[in-house]
Amino acid sequence: MNFYTIGHVTEDIVPRSHVSGAVVYSAVAAMKLGFRAHIITKIPQKHPYVRQLEKMGIVVYPLPIRQSNIKKGLTSFKNFFSKDGNREQVVTDTQERITVEDLDFFPSFPDNSVILIASVVAEVEEALFPILEKLGYFTATPQGYFRKIQKSGKVKQIVWRKISSLSYSRITVFSEEDITINNSGFSRKLLLERLIMHSSVTVLTCGRNGSLVYKNTPKEPIRIKAFELSSNEPVNLSGAGDVYATAFIIHFLQYQDLKEAALFASLYASLKIAEKEKLGGIGASTVPSLLTIKKFICGNKSRIGNFLRSNNSKILRVPHFPS
Fold first, then answer.
1. What would the 3-class secondary structure string for the chain be?
2. Does the residue 315 lie in any domain?
3. Are strands 75-81 and 10-12 parallel, antiparallel or unpaired?
4. What range does the domain containing 89 cover?
5. Residue 148: inside a domain, yes or no?
């Protein structure tokens, strides 16, 4: 099966420059969970990151860049995390948007493809949503639409004015950070309710507090406690929400069980955070493989059992889509 992510491949400058972005983490996770992974993006065709991603097994479709002043650039971030997991972001460069004008350069989507809008700076035009919804299993991680880049480069959370665009999304995943907006008169509760009402399935990730899964209504969400890491395990939060979303989508596609999908996604994201994929390097190289997951489950039966009991569950199946 095929998994297409759409958005900017980015460069993370901290701790040292490396390929990043929601599309990258999501595509790598999809590949490691058995899908053929693709990225549709704005990136110079001969940029080293294209070759790097292709070596990892991901197909990259670099769309034409029309603005001559950014033909060599990438959207670039500096991410700083506090001890409690809060993030400060600074954008040092941006690439141009992906718009309806780019559709002629999109690949053909095979039947039953997953299409994920993985935005980091609102770079995918919302007018594409109703078109893409007809071409595959359309999903979204809309974090970028809640961001405004200030003159200093710092990212400020804002209210997305086109939330109704999510009515085309089968599954939408976003975080508490995305809707934490410091604005007088702002109601987070009302914003969350609007998000939930527009998407068929909505998942709100809450870091150490787990996640909430909503199906069409803000009432009676499925509450999932997070898989707890021990104090001696490393913490690398970059990309955790992206791999959570991908794991949730893929698990739900196979088993059609919202609670179990959230349980698996919680474990998968925790293994990414704790860098259980011992390959060295940074960024997407820390995304766990199926083998890593299975070995962890087999070698940590007590921890897995405690996790399941804390969520009143008895089973945790691992997806097994053939690549």
1. CEEEEECCCEEECCCCCEEECHHHHHHHHHHHCCCEEEEEECCCCCCHHHHHHHHCCCEEEECCCCCHHHCCCCEEEEEEECCCCCEEEEEEECCCCECHHHHHHCCCCCCCCEEEEECCCCCECHHHHHHHHCCCEEEEECHHHHEEECCCCEEEECCCCCHHHHHHCCEEEEECHHHCCCCCCCCHHHHHHHHHHHCCEEEEECHHHCEEEEECCCCCCEEECCCCCCCCCCCCCCCHHHHHHHHHHHHHHHHCCHHHHHHHHHHHHHHHHCCCCCCCCCHHHHCCCHHHHHHHHHHCHHHHHHHHHHCCCCCCCCCCCCC
2. no
3. parallel
4. 2-310
5. yes
Q: How many domains does the chain have?
A: 1
Is 105 a domain residue?
yes
In a structure prediction context, what are the per-residue pLDDT tens digits for the chain, which is 323 residues long? 999 999 999 998 877 888 999 999 999 999 999 999 999 999 999 999 999 999 999 999 999 999 877 767 899 988 887 766 677 889 989 999 999 999 999 999 999 999 999 999 999 999 999 999 999 999 999 999 999 999 999 999 998 999 999 999 999 999 998 988 876 566 888 889 999 999 999 999 999 999 999 998 888 999 999 999 988 887 788 899 999 999 999 999 999 999 999 999 999 999 999 887 765 556 788 899 999 999 999 999 999 999 999 999 999 999 987 65
